[in-house]
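Quick one, T. Sequence first:
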Amino acid sequence: MLLIGAIATVALQIACYTPEPAPAKVDAAIVLGAAVWQGQPSPVFEERIKHGIQLVQSQAVDYLILTGSVGAGDIHAESAVAYQYALAAGVPPQRMLTEATSTVTAENLAEACALMKQHRLGNALIVSDPLHMKRAMTLAEDIGLAAYASPTPTSRYRSWNTKAKSLAYETFFYLTHLVSRLAGSTPHCAS
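Structure tokens:
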């Protein structure tokens, strides 16, 4: 019962996560990678990219950092698909930075951290789905990123069924990260 209670408590913390307010202007928005379907962003990834584009267009950020490598069965890197989508939406190429080696959230953030160092960027907004924000922000803190949460205002996880699956997924991977952290294994900024 204690274990079930602990898992339920973590799931509730994830579902109710409220980020601290971000400054009106930061250096970059890190768009966390997600699935690509036949060379196009999946609906979840598209929501993230759209939000990142809006942040650039509203001048809340100077740069978009697009993350993600080629997924299993794909031929296009997530970051390349996001780059083309943002380019088509009018984001200037000189305002986008990409990395195409990361496969999971911790790697997305570690690679984004390296790009930020390389381009002398001090802080960032992390763009992802609302249920992904607690884990993403915990990983960013462990990496040492000066980051603020910027959850997508809309989500493809709308029905109770899709929200429940996403919450279960996030709870599992958040707990896995906490166990890794206790074991002394935390992600670090890529070099």
